[in-house]
Amino acid sequence: MSGHPALPADDLRKFLADNGVDVAGDLRIDLISGGKSNLTFSVRDDRSHWVVRRPPTSGLTPSAHDMNREWAVTSALQSTDVPVARTVAIDSDGEVLGAPFTVVEFVDGRVIRTDDDLKDLSDNEIERNLDGLIDTLARLHAVDYGAVGLGEFGRPDGFAARQVKLWARQWGHVKSRELDDVERLVEQLSDRIPTQSRNTIVHGDYRVDNTITSADDAGVVRAVVDWELSTLGDPLTDVALMCVYRRPGFDTVVGFDAAWTSDRYPSADEIAQRYAARTGADLGDWDFYLALANLKLGVIAEGIAHRARSGATSDGSERASEATAEFIAGGLAQLGGDKHRVG
């Protein structure tokens, strides 16, 4: 029986048995590479294959790594046309590992994470992949969250304003140095809060490598994963973040040449236009949403480096903060440049 220091096999086996899951043979546990936040494990026995997710062992930041939130939304979406892994069990109080964790069924398919992962795809397949991503996000935003039991999942009213305050607070927790531009960006965003917005389920971290596609058709999304930042709020924050992840600085954040930054995908503006066409949505004050997404990504980059400095990783993640200033500057430029609307 193999294990991992953050996921002891004996403890997991007992937990599964206590939750009515029949384990056939020894558990084989492997850490899945690629995650910069929650730890994700592949767990097999002689018959079944699961995925276990838990927070990192150090360097945690408030409001992140929320396994109960991830469980609530993925459980609710089981009955919808939004593709998610089948939920199996949750330790919501962290009694087993000292931190909450979830178990879901493994979804077989393709994860498009690195630039190398695109080499096997034709231009037409990449187009289909983008269409699948946009269609899946549109379907998520169309879910009646009250009807699936998520009416109390978040506070959608005033969401954008709270997001600005949230990421400003997060900056205070993870920053390694003072950047006056962060305060400037927060102030300008605070003065620019949209007065009207839609309210939907928001994924909070949507991009190609947070999906699993069919192994033989990149246009078919078999599961959306990594729901730890999900809530109820303004769907345009999902669209804008998906677009800002296209910036080259994202490669520095993840530590490799990401698929999503490749110029084989259309521009961020075209992605936004396609979402607007698919949903009929007015993208409103698009500059605000892009600037907020830049703030969020800048703080996320700093947070990844913060966790690395705290000993959560040893893979060079401390370099992620080198991209922070680029994203913050991008946010300021978005608010100070030519005003334009998409959609």
Task: Bin the strand percentage.
Answer: 5-15%
Rg estimate, integer Å: 20 Å
CATH architecture of the largest domain: Alpha-Beta Complex
Mean pLDDT: 91
| CATH class membership of the largest domain | Alpha Beta
- Please count the beta strands (DSSP E, at least 2 residues each): 9
- H/I helix tally: 10
Order of helices and strands: HEEEHEEHHHEEEEHHHHH
The total tally of domains equals: 2
CATH topology call of the largest domain: Aminoglycoside 3'-phosphotransferase, Chain: A, domain 2
Shape, principal axes of CA atoms = globular
CATH H-level homologous superfamily name of the largest domain:
Aminoglycoside phosphotransferase (APH), C-terminal lobe
From the N-terminal CA to the C-terminal CA, the straight-line distance is 55 Å
Give a structural overview.
The protein has 343 residues and is an alpha+beta fold. It has two domains: 21-105, Phosphorylase Kinase, domain 1; 115-336, Aminoglycoside phosphotransferase (APH), C-terminal lobe (Aminoglycoside 3'-phosphotransferase, Chain: A, domain 2), CATH 3.90.1200. It has ten helices and nine strands. β1 (28-31) and β2 form a beta hairpin. α4 (159-174) packs antiparallel against α5 (180-190). The termini are far apart. Residues 59-64 and 337-343 have low confidence and may be disordered.
